[in-house]
Structure formats: C-alpha cells, structure tokens
Write a structure and sequence with these properties.
About 45% of the residues lie in helices and about 20% in strands. The chain is built from ten helices and nine strands. A seven-stranded mixed β-barrel has the order 1-2-6-9-8-7-5. A two-stranded antiparallel ribbon has the order 3-4. Strand 3 and strand 4 form a beta hairpin.
Length: about 375
C-alpha cells in the first residue's frame, strides 16, 4: 500500500507520528462507455465555454458563483488556509464506543506508525482497548475539514471519517405515525424466524454474485463473441412466481419452515461430506499398508496393527473359552439324566398316583371355599 498522507495524532501533550493509508478498495469490474454502433470509445472533454478550447486538468481552477458574481479560487488560495496546512489529527474527546451511530460513518483509513519508536502508538492503542472508548478527532484531508472516529481493529489504529451532524437527513415519514397492533403470536413467529437465521458473522462466507456473474459474462463474450448463449453460460433461470398475497402469519410460518429445511439440508450435506472424508482417509491408510506389506517393508502405522492383533487375540480367547465350556458341559447332561433316572427307579411306583389323588382332594377344598 502507498501512504496518502503523513502527519501525527495528538492528545494532550502526547504526539504520535503516523502514516495514513486507504483501508478499503473496490472490487467492481471497471467498465467504460462506447458507441453501440461501432464500439468507439466515448470520452469526456473539459471544454471552455468562452474560448472553445479543451482545457488540461492542471489549468482548471475552482470557483464559487452566487448568481451575480464568480469568485475564482486557485491552489495557492487553498494552501493559504491555516487548517489546510495542518497535518495533525487532534483528539477532541473520548466517548463510549456504543454511542457512535453507524449512519455517520464514511471511508476508513489505516494509521501506521511513522517513527522508529512505536511506544506512543502502542500506548494510544492500548488505552483505547482497555477503556473501551473511541477517540473523536478532527483532521483535514483533500481540502476538507473532517470529523473522525479513531478506534482499534486488531493491532492497528483505524481512522473512520464521519459525517457532520447537519449532513444526516432527518427520517420523517408520515406512514410511521400510524398506530400498528401486533399480536403475541406474530411476535413469537417473528422471533422464531430470527432464531432460525441466527449465526456468527463471517465476511468470507459472502460473495458479490453480480460481479462474479459479470466476469463470467465477459469471459464468455471473449470466447464466443456475439453468438453467446446466456442459458448455456448461466443455466436456465426460474421464472419468478406471481404476486401471491399472503397474510403476515402465513408468510412468517412459511419462512420459518423454509429456513429450517435449508439448515437441515446443510447439516446433512456436512455430515455426508465428513463420512466421505473419513472413508477416503481409511481407504488411503489401507492402501498404504497393502503397498508396504507387498514391498516387504514394515507397516508405518503400528497402532492400528496392535489394535487388530489384540482384537484377534481376544476373539481367539473367547472362542477357546466357549469351546472349553461346551466340551466340559457336554458329558454333564447325560450324567444328570442318569441320576434322575436312577432316583425314579428307586422311588416306589405308588407315589405318583398318591400325588394325583392329593391334587384331586385339594380341588374340592378350593370350590367349597
């Protein structure tokens, strides 16, 4: 980056030498105007109304016209202004950061230290961080006196140009004066819709789709010329649905359902992708082990080999234990049957009818009861 301004930040008697850099840039595709009939470039000329000549930029001065008279102001006139000559960013006050209205914020600039010693720079940065305050400053840049907010972003001081109070228009709309009644159900559905869209802000997850499609169109035009088929380039675009009129509750309900279904589909796709990655990793690991075993080399991954050996040994022990148990229990079954048979042989045969007769006696006793 190239510094666009050099000066210093002053608060009290402390002076911090700095260099000013533009913190933002445009990513838009640069386009120019041409004649649609022959493609000729359209250029603007600074032509004088008095002499009719085309005037070079360095010969152009600024002027103020009050309707009757014109006052011409040259570069020397602007340089003579005391404020314009100032290269100092003066701290006016330190305010709570939450009091700044984003509506007033304009272009951002990075402030880098312009000295071998960065102690004063770090002191100002740490002070703003620990007090959670933003410095309101006054500075002059490009022939304009500006109000600014000096804050911290990471390890860098950032100067945010602010609009003056009279540059922000008042929001006066008669429609907002009407009294609107919202039901508790509508508020609950709106809260559910907000909850379904909740996320942490990640700027990298957003893309400028218009600029992406514009670059795609330019590339396709360069390759195919005027015979460009937009449907092949961008695919078929779905026609917009007609203006279906929905009440507020129905629109909220559908929005919540659509948001939840999208989140569910995204989670499902993520889990499938994770499973595919795990399967691919296991497959590559097995291929490596196969290649190493085929070449006679020892496998690099010893831990999985130990686990598989331990499992095999455990399996062998379990099968051996089951085999031993089945072998030891096999002869016991006939022995038990023989002992029971011997007891039955020793018992007198008259006992079995006695048992039945006893049962018959008990049955009438239950009926009488």
């Amino acid at each position: 980056m190239r510094a666009i301004w050099k000066g210093s930040v002053s608060f009290g008697l402390v002076n911090v030498p700095i260099k000013l850099y533009s913190a933002t840039e445009s990513h838009d595709v640069a386009l120019h105007q041409v004649h649609n009939a022959d493609g000729g470039r359209i250029r603007y000329q600074r032509r004088c109304e008095v002499c009719g000549k085309v005037i070079a930029y360095e010969d152009i001065a600024k002027a103020y016209d009050d309707g009757d008279r014109t006052v011409v102001l040259t570069e020397e006139d602007f340089d003579a202004l005391p404020v314009e000559r100032s290269r100092e960013i003066s701290v006016l006050e330190f305010v709570p950061s939450e009091q700044l209205d984003p509506m007033m914020m304009q272009k951002s600039y990075y402030l880098a230290p312009d000295s071998k010693s960065t102690k004063s720079y770090v002191l100002l940065r740490r002070t703003l961080e620990e007090t959670d305050r933003t410095a309101i400053v006054n500075f002059t840049l490009r022939e304009k006196t500006r109000l600014g907010a000096l804050r911290v972003r990471g390890d860098v001081l950032v100067l945010q140009a602010l609009l003056w109070e009279d540059e922000v228009r008042a929001a006066e709309f008669p429609e907002l004066d009407q009294e609107v009644k919202l039901s508790a159900k509508e508020m609950q559905m709106a809260a559910a819709l907000v909850s379904s869209f909740e996320s942490d802000f990640d700027p990298e997850s957003f893309t400028d789709e218009y600029q992406v499609e514009l670059r795609q169109l330019i590339t396709a035009k360069l390759e195919q010329g005027e015979a460009l088929d937009t449907e092949k380039t961008f695919g078929e675009t779905a026609e917009e649905e007609g203006g279906e009129v929905l009440d507020l509750m129905e629109a909220l309900r559908r929005s919540v359902e659509e948001s939840r279904s999208k989140k569910g589909a995204a989670k499902g796709a993520g889990s499938v992708a994770a499973k595919e990655e795990d399967a691919a990793a296991e497959g590559s690991a097995s291929e490596e082990e196969t290649e190493e075993s085929g070449s006679g080399a020892k496998p690099a991954r010893k831990a999985p080999a130990r686990r598989s050996t331990a499992r095999a040994a455990a399996g062998k022990k379990a099968s051996a234990t089951r085999a031993t148990a089945s072998t030891s229990s096999a002869p016991r079954a006939p022995a038990r049957k023989t002992a029971a048979a011997a007891k039955d042989e020793e018992k007198p045969a008259a006992k079995k009818p006695a048992t039945r007769s006893t049962t018959r006696k008990k049955a009438p006793a239950k009926k009488s009861a």
